[in-house]
User: Which sequence fits this backbone?
């Protein structure tokens, strides 16, 4: 396969490295990078198979300015929810191309470990079984890829786990212990599932790689950007300072607001996401902890 990866951040470069093991792969971004096989955005969008790894809040603008639908087969590796509209990523892409041309990547995977060729397992979700199979077969031997038809479930898992990871980072930053973190993550998984059920997601997705797998990884390691945001909040650092020092996109920050807004609109009980938003807005983390413990 000839594949173009659009987005040259850490995750984009990791996917470029992974797909290059078995395929002919180029990489592109709006900012020129000194990477082998770097091509222009225009050239990348002419490929039949394209991987998108760009910040969720930039997707609509990027597609509107650059994308021309030529029936490209797309694998979306971005995670999150658009804050301005509350739309999921598949809904945004479907404004620019057909649903049968779209697949979505999820599962536990840190870019640094993929670059080292360490083993992991991922999920490719699509309404088109043939497209999902095509993408799973393109992965290298050190990545076991599974197929799924639950696009919305995989998307919600990938978005929501980043919010729980912020809460988990706060928990560890306050040195509340392993018991507290495990309890938080377990209740976070329940909260994710409850939210997803309102959008037609399948329960088993939340118990698999896309849900529990990715959540356990992201909410328990300092390799996670969102977890590190939580560590900073626990130290009472201003959010602006945390994000500046991070120097990378922490999707859990805008996603927390998107989830909370959707939860309010649909009367979904989302206590952890709600408290994460409050802390992002400056609420004292100790007060948030007390309030969270009072909730059911």
Assistant:
């Amino acid at each position: 396969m000839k594949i173009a990866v659009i987005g040259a951040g850490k995750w984009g470069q990791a996917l470029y490295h992974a797909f290059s093991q078995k395929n002919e792969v180029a990489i592109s971004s709006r900012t020129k990078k000194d990477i082998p096989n770097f091509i222009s955005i225009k050239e990348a969008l002419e490929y039949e198979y394209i991987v998108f790894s760009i910040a969720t809040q930039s997707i609509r603008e990027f597609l509107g300015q650059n994308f021309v639908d030529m029936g490209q087969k797309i694998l979306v590796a971005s995670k999150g929810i658009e804050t301005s509209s509350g739309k999921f990523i598949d809904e945004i892409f479907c404004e620019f191309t057909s649903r049968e041309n779209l697949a979505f990547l999820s599962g536990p995977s840190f870019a640094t470990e993929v670059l080292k060729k360490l083993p992991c397992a991922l999920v490719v979700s699509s309404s088109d079984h043939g497209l999902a199979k095509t993408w799973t077969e393109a992965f290298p031997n050190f990545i076991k890829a599974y197929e799924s038809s639950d696009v919305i479930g995989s998307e919600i898992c990938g978005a929501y786990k980043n919010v729980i990871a912020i809460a988990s980072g706060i928990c560890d930053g306050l040195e509340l212990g392993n018991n507290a973190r495990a309890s938080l993550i377990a209740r976070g998984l329940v909260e994710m599932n409850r939210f997803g059920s309102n959008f037609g997601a399948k329960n088993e997705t939340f118990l698999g790689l896309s849900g529990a797998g990715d959540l356990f990884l992201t909410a328990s390691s300092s390799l996670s950007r969102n977890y590190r945001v939580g560590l900073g909040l626990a130290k009472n650092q201003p959010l602006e300072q945390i994000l500046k020092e991070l120097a990378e996109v922490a999707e859990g920050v805008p996603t927390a607001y998107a989830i909370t807004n959707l939860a309010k609109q649909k009367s979904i009980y989302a206590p952890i996401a709600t408290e994460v938003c409050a802390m992002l807005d400056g609420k004292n983390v100790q007060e948030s902890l007390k309030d969270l413990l009072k909730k059911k």
Notes: The first strand starts at residue 2 and ends at 6. The beta strands are 2-6, 24-28, 49-52, 73-76, 102-106, 120-125, 143-148.
